[in-house]
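Weekly modeling sync, notes
Attendees: S.R. (lead), two postdocs, one rotation student

Agenda item 3: backlog of single-chain predictions. S.R. asked that every request posted to the team notebook include the full sequence so nobody has to chase files. The rotation student volunteered to paste the first one in as an example of the format we agreed on. Action items at the bottom.

Example entry:
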Amino acid sequence: MRIEQLEYIAAVTRLGSLRRAAEELHLSQPALSETVRNLERELGVDLLERKRSGATISVEGRELLPHIASVIEAVDRLRGAAGDQHRVSRMIRLGTVNTATVPLLIPAVREFRATHPVTQVEVVGAQQAEIHRALLEGGFDLGLVNCLRGDDVPPSLESTELLRGRPVVCLRPDSPLAARPTVSAADLLDGREPLIVMRSGYLMHRLIHRLLAGRTPSFSYSTDGAEMGKLMVAEGLGVTVLPDFSVIGDPLERGGAITHRPLADEVTEVLLMIQRRRSGSVPRAVRDLHELFVRRADTSATPRAPRGSAGATAP
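Predicted structure, as returned to the notebook:
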């Protein structure tokens, strides 16, 4: 016995004829009739009453209909549960600009793993434009991006602010600049410490260009992403500018390999946002990871605005 045989009988009963059932099921009438006959032979009961004008459900068939319906409903519940399980155990693809990868993302993924042991999380480092494109095209489920106060965000993406911070100078504790309470743009330009900048396309590249008013330091490195920048600082190659929430709590900072100093007269706010596509259903595991990021950000030591889904221009 196969479930489709029972579904065919239910269709004949609902539509009142073998012909109409065959049309709805996209089967030939002889094929449908033969499938039903095989079931009748297996059960030893004539389920259909066949006449010259057509075939309809028999009296015996009607008596069995409640049992047939129960089996179909049970199978539907099984399929639904299997679908939910698939959605829970799927891979989640998370795009991140990695400015807050270590202090926020790693603890969040670790906690998520404890409650979703069969769900894989793939973390992909990318620039903000690439993350937006992949979110809209379905390549990423979630995205972590940085915005400056006043930046626009795509209206087709749901954006929730996680952290709010200030740009700071990330440097080694033994750097000459570490002896100062603040570091100015002139200090970054004078050449005593090489400046490590993010490549074009990263928000911190835009911020440094604005901070230095288009001037260039006597020597600088460029790199992809904050994590490599912090490693270069720890190895004594220079200093870099990052949001404070990217440095505070980083393993390199906790271990004493890097520290930070405020930028003099710099009041720019940097926002860390988590984004997902507005349209379409959201798998439960993706919702759970999204909520976990928000919850961990709520308990973060870094000051942040009240939670809410909005663009970067929200007050």
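Discussion: group reviewed the output briefly. The longest helix spans residues 59-89.
Action items: rotation student to repeat for the remaining queue; S.R. to check formatting next week.
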